[in-house]
Amino acid sequence: MKFIEEVVVDEFLPTYRSMLAADLRDRGFTQSEVAQALGISQSAVSKYAHGDVARNDAILDDDRVQELVETVGEGLAAGDMSPVQALVEAEVLIRRLERGDLLATIHRDEVPELAEYGSDFAIHDPESDLRTAERVLSSLRRGLRVLENASGFARLIPNVGTNLVACTPDADSIDDVAGVPGRIVDVKGRATVPAEPEFGVSEYVASVLLAARAAGADVTAAINVRYDEDVLAALEAQGRETVEFEGEDDIETAVADALSERPEATVLYQTGSYGVEPIVYVLAEDSVSAAEAVRDVVR
Length: 299
Fold this sequence. Notes:
The protein is an alpha+beta fold and 299 residues long. It has two domains: 4-117, no CATH class; 129-297, L-fuculose-1-phosphate Aldolase (3-Layer(aba) Sandwich). The protein contains twelve helices and nine strands. A seven-stranded mixed sheet has the order 5-2-1-6-9-8-7, with helices on both faces. It has a two-stranded antiparallel ribbon with strand order 3-4. Strand 8 (267-270) and strand 9 (279-284) form a beta hairpin. Helix 1 runs antiparallel to helix 2, helix 1 packs across helix 7 and helix 2 (31-38) packs across helix 3. The longest helix is centred in the N-terminal third of the chain and has 23 residues, at 4-26.
């Protein structure tokens, strides 16, 4: 785990300070005056002067950093800029470079897992796609732990396997829905999650969830289990409304028709047909609630 603040401390600050120290020395500042202007020790200035501090070439070559160094150096030398203003100007550029820019790119290179989000996200943005996606995955992992620890849950897994899926708040495609690659399977009577959850790996369960949301259901998670009248009865005993839907070719229409009949339904089921396994789908406000609903069926 490496924070972008570490990139600032380890890469930006040494490079920027060395550049500014050199600029001020060129303007006639003594080593002591440079140290005072930058708020660092004279020994640190000496290290900058002798090239004993590693510098990042990408930061060195960035026009905006070079412009900032020249502006701050000129302002400090002329007395037109206070150390506080110099600090503020540097902070403004740092924040800019963190938002899908130079520092975000350096951070992504040092944390390869960030690469799938590109370099255009702002890691400090509380509403960033990255944060939203990771929260969905975190919730999904908690739901999966509920299933793994649920005694007897494996017997609810249908032949096609079970998947627990969750979506982002504004999901409109399967790529916005996270699930288990390969689905949850029964291995010697135990529910087994074969891989870490990912986005875009579920097709059918994700399609049912998206169709329900498109029809107005206020849900963000879904799970499929084996169809059985006793399973339906147990879910109804939890206070859940159930409704049957039919149609493999047009899931969105089939789910919409079912929910128009019973808008409050959070359990959708198919009784099966030739080549189609009967399945129950449980919709919920989050992954843990979906998992707990089916866990309680086998208690």
